[in-house]
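Narrative progress, year one. The postdoctoral researcher (J.K.) led the effort to move from monomer predictions toward full complexes, under supervision of the PI. The following entry was the first complex the group processed end to end, covering 850 residues in total.
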Amino acid sequence: MEQADLFKAVVDICVLIIIAELTSTVGAKLGLPRILGPLFAGVLMGPHLLGGVIIGDAPFIEYSDLILIFSEIGAVLLLFQAGLHMKFSELMKSGVASLAVAAAGVIIPFAMGLVASTLLGYDWLVGMVIGGALSATSIAISLKCLGEFQQLGSPEAKLIIGAAVIDDVLALSIASVILSIVSDPVNLRFSSMLRSIAMTLIIWFVFTAFSSRVVPWFAEYMNRLENLDPIKQNIVPLASLLICFGFAGLSGLVGLSPLVGAFMAGMAIAGSRFHDEVSEFTEHLAVLFVPLFFIMAGAQVNPSAMLTGNFLLVGVLGIVAIVSKLYGCGIPAQWFLKDKEKGMRVGYGMISRGEIGLVISSMGVTYGIITAEVYVALVVVIFITTMLPPLLLKKSYVNDPTCVLPDYMRKGTTPLGETSKTDQH
Amino acid sequence: MEQADLFKAVVDICVLIIIAELTSTVGAKLGLPRILGPLFAGVLMGPHLLGGVIIGDAPFIEYSDLILIFSEIGAVLLLFQAGLHMKFSELMKSGVASLAVAAAGVIIPFAMGLVASTLLGYDWLVGMVIGGALSATSIAISLKCLGEFQQLGSPEAKLIIGAAVIDDVLALSIASVILSIVSDPVNLRFSSMLRSIAMTLIIWFVFTAFSSRVVPWFAEYMNRLENLDPIKQNIVPLASLLICFGFAGLSGLVGLSPLVGAFMAGMAIAGSRFHDEVSEFTEHLAVLFVPLFFIMAGAQVNPSAMLTGNFLLVGVLGIVAIVSKLYGCGIPAQWFLKDKEKGMRVGYGMISRGEIGLVISSMGVTYGIITAEVYVALVVVIFITTMLPPLLLKKSYVNDPTCVLPDYMRKGTTPLGETSKTDQH
């Protein structure tokens, strides 16, 4: 890479992230969830719109290799951060309930997505990508909502988190199955697909249990090395990053999505006493990488295709996406929590799709399984699902007099999402 | 770049930085300056030693494109950070004294380096690279020393900082001249070289004065955009990064070293009220980039070449490097500060060479001007010069009863460098 191109790429990255942040500010003013900011910014600055405007003799934003590399690193960091929110022991505690909610919440959207798209005349392989893309809840969005409402300790929140984690692994094992089908479409059998999902789950469970013991020990060892020096270095966080990308690479090698590995690495660190340190370190780095993943997801959307898009497909998949998670997770949750409203909250919280849905959709487009039309429909549906949980959860909590909410929440003016400025100073 | 290679590259980057930090811990225990850590680690983990050990079917550390890209970004961030320490107004205040010390401190080492290497039988172009590499003080090392001694506000420190900044610009303009000679060796005239240096200085001064007005205004404007949102985003720091890499790219375009641009960008931000915010943001990012620059500088050294190296050359250049800065800066400084010991401290503080010297040396090797033998000699000499100022300054301050030093300093046990753990919590 030429030096001039490198500097241009870094400038482009800064421009894209700033525009994404401004877009999310505007979105928040309109009451939209912040995650839409980078996605919209990606569409806006994508090669089909502003990003493609020729200035001098080059496009305004050049989608160079470096931007792609940064967005891939961003996806890994994002899943690592998600993993940091969940200890293995917590996952075990929420056990059966989480597993049941997750299983229902993956199988029902997957099946409904597959059936609906087959009825609309699509190939079953396209249906699998659609079903897969609709099956994974975005834990990031759910967590941000619950944190904003200060409800992270509530039983419904714990159930949402536990279920969302298992849900991720299930959805990513579906993604692995799709990948294996693409690479060897001849020897396809339903039994081998089931076996593949089961294998993924078993490998995941064994490796997670194993790494949740070994990684904290490794971190302690690194910390002892760090303590040799009176000056604060970043050995433990860097070692965690090493594990994160090492696990991502290993999962890739055994045919899983690298994101599963990154998630496991995060979960293993979550169980160590270095959780806060690593979390902070990752957050600082994430600023330059994570938004690019969402921006790139948006940049792959051609807005003219969206306007002339398949509204029937968007409508059907939208209804499938919402109904399947709302009831697929809500009803089992009502049974476990023995409370109708709290159960529905789990349903609300699980509606949002995000990074994994986008990853599976991009994979589908990259391998030529789904057309641009279907991809755009999926992205639009994912957009829609991310908007609902904040709105639905807010309504449910505000109407519940037993919940202690932050003051501004009841007034309903502050945007959702990260910690506010005053908290940080 | 394949995904697997990308993850491997990130893992390699983490391994290299961790080893660099451990090396600098060991070095600090031995009383060596910390900057030697990443350099030694680079030699150790370079392709000629451990990094080249074949594991499986690939070398232990693969020096991939991503590592090179990260190290280039690191060099830019490093100069940006250096610029953040210096306001344009401060530079103007220290004015004549800084200019005189800087000019003497660049011209004398450059001339002595050129003459000495010509006497040793080298070509005059080689001599220019050697002179250039020996002409720039490393402001980073000087600053770290003075900060550790809590002497940053002293008159000698202000003079060191002012002189080191101008010194950087002078040395970088020498680098630009070398670059232009390499690209067009036929039309070479001494008058055109002088004109080129003068032009560089004038462009630098005008552009710095201009940007020191415009950039703070731009940052204010960005801050107003940021304030539209109650949630803290990173728009101002990201905009600063944009300016940093934009300026780096522009300097590259007009034939200057990109590092001059990065330095100017830092200086322009230093004059705004966002200095602390940008500084903190850059520091967090720097962790993943800056050490790689020093590591890569070390990795280019072949230790077997060092052992069989040209000891005469190292000895001569070492003496030239030390004497030329010590007296070249020390004597003018004695005149301006009207104090013998304080003047010598300026001389001590200016001895250390660092990033710019390494950049010029690498440039010389890359363009085939200097041989590996000369490169190794220069790197060794730069190694040596970084060790002296901490030791000499410490001795001078500890023996001065009028100086208030931190307690542990007089005991002489704590390593030099960054803020200590207790300061950060």
